[in-house]
């Protein structure tokens, strides 16, 4: 059997021949044409979630699925995942369609490593509470005290870049601090048991650890970082975005609607998150007091993409990312 494009046309080549008339359609699957014409080839989207953040609230609240159901799109939730990197692996491996709205730094690292991923949209939430913490009584009260100490971070992620930025700002030679690469589920007990001296982590893990382990901030992103280097992002494979632009747009819209609801209903959102995260009322009340707001940016927002490129270049220069990456080459065409 021939493997030529004539014998087995792709959707793209099929659409290209459609203008030549009905005769050109002979032997082709008409249902495939209908699906491609509507901008999607599936009615189900597989989304990842973790034990915090917007995706968790979207999953628990249920309105997100109702929004997509209006477009006859069914949602399947996969998780929980501990952080962004495993969701990127799930998307690349074909078991999920979207990463769960996590750090741009591991996303860029995955892209550099060869994963066929593209960004579908970006989120900035404020205030930013990612921090480097150390236990009370440890003798670590400022960044300079990390010399000769070990700090748990997630590789090529939010934790690692924050530590790099903190050391640079306080003129501490990076080689004088031990980076211990651990994912959050392993880093928390490592800090509690004293196997590491400090931990660079995001919410809610850092907030829970601060209370449960009697720890304190030595570097707080929103207070001490001079500019934002890492953003929240959603990614899918390039093929999925190419085959399903209408579905990707619908998912983006549903996430934006969820972010708007959370921004306007922070107290209710934090109660939902606490139920799944199983943390104390004290932590929950801290989050309510933050009154966190979500702002979304499309992949065609040139000003935002310029800022992300500057962040990527900063990370490359400091070897958090292994080589340069051009962000505009990895944006979904929607």
Write up what this structure looks like.
By secondary structure, the protein is of the alpha/beta class. Helices cover 44% and strands 19% of the residues. The strands form three sheets. It has a five-stranded mixed beta sheet, with helices on both faces. A four-stranded antiparallel beta sheet has the order 3-10-4-11. Helix 4 packs antiparallel against helix 12. The protein starts with 10 loop residues before the first helix and ends in a 17-residue tail after the last helix. Belongs to the bacterial solute-binding protein SsuA/TauA family. It comes from Bradyrhizobium campsiandrae. This is NrtA/SsuA/CpmA family ABC transporter substrate-binding protein. InterPro entries: Solute-binding_3/MltF_N, SsuA/THI5, TAT_signal.
Q: What's the SSE blueprint?
A:
Layout lengths: L10 H7 L12 H8 L6 E7 L2 H9 L1 H7 L4 E8 L2 H10 L8 E2 H9 L4 E10 L4 E5 L14 E4 L4 H12 L8 E4 L2 H10 L4 E4 L3 H8 L2 E6 H4 L7 E6 H6 L1 H20 L1 H12 L3 H10 L2 E6 L3 H16 L17
Parallel strand pairs: 1-2, 6-7, 6-8
Antiparallel strand pairs: 3-10, 4-10, 4-11, 5-8, 5-9
